[in-house]
Amino acid sequence: MTPLKIKPRLSVLAGALSSFAAVGLCPGAQESVLLKFANGSGQASVGVLHDIKGKAYLPLMEVAKFYGVDVQFDAQTRKVTLSKGKVRENLALSQPVFLTTDPDMSVPIDPVEVVSGQLGIPPDSVEDSFGTLLDNQVSYLQDQQAIVAGGVRADEIQPDTQARTMTAPTAVPATPTAVEVTQVTPTAVPASEEAGGPEAPTKEKPADEKHVTRLEDEPPANKVMWARRIIIDAGHGGNDAGAPGRDHRYVEKEATLDIANKLVTYLKEMDPQLEVLMTRNADYYITLKYRTDYANTHNGDLFVSIHCNSNPRKEAHGTEIYIYSAKASNQWAAKAAERENGWKKGNKLTIFEELKKDRYTYYSSKLAEMTEKRIENRMGQHFRNIQKAPFYVLAYSDMPAILVETAFISNQKEENKLRDPYWKDNMAKAIAEGVIGYKDVVEGNSGNEQARR
Question: pTM score, two decimals?
Answer without folding.
Answer: 0.53
